[in-house]
Amino acid sequence: MTLIRRALSAALALGLLAAVAPAPAASSTRTVTKVAAVVNPKSWNAPCPATLKFTGTIFVSHHPATVTYRWERSDGAQGQVQTLTINASGEGVTDTWTLGAGKEHKRVWEKLHVLTPTGVSSNAASIQVNCR
């Protein structure tokens, strides 16, 4: 019996029995890999109020994946937290912002913030608004 224990100890020390231990499971974590945002139109030079449409895309490593997200704006406002099940490698979401009055000129932006399962934000999709 002692000889068997010594042989097993030696084999473990040399890594010969490593195959007996279960291999780690393949990663199936639904992770957000990228978040992108754009704004349309690209610029606003017209009477106000301006209506801006922001489009974001959430990309995931595995699908289906359930994510929670919200839009965040340059004026500090945050949209409601929303839940989305993504059934492909990426899914689009939108937000609309109506702003501006008189002859106001300002640069504004929105970004898409994915809260779960991976906290990651998009670029800031910005636009110069020039009210006439």
Structure description:
The chain has 132 residues and is mostly beta strands. The chain has a single domain, classed as Immunoglobulin-like (Sandwich), CATH 2.60.40. It has one helix at residues 2-13; strands at 32-40, 44-46, 50-60, 65-73, 82-86, 90-99, 105-116, 120-121, 125-131. The strands form 2 sheets. Strands 2, 4, 5, 7, 8 and 9 form a 6-stranded mixed beta sheet that branches. It is elongated. Residues 1-5 and 7-27 have low confidence and may be disordered.
Chain-wise SSE layout:
Layout lengths: L1 H12 L18 E9 L3 E3 L3 E11 L4 E9 L8 E5 L3 E10 L5 E12 L3 E2 L3 E7 L1
Parallel strand pairs: 2-9
Antiparallel strand pairs: 1-3, 3-6, 4-5, 4-7, 7-8, 7-9
CATH class: Mainly Beta
First CA to last CA: what distance?
A: 93 Å
Low-confidence stretches: 1-5, 7-27
Number of domains: 1
Radius of gyration: 26 Å
Précis, in short:
This protein is mainly beta. It has 1 helix and 9 strands, in the order αβββββββββ. The protein has a single domain (32-131), classed as Immunoglobulin-like.
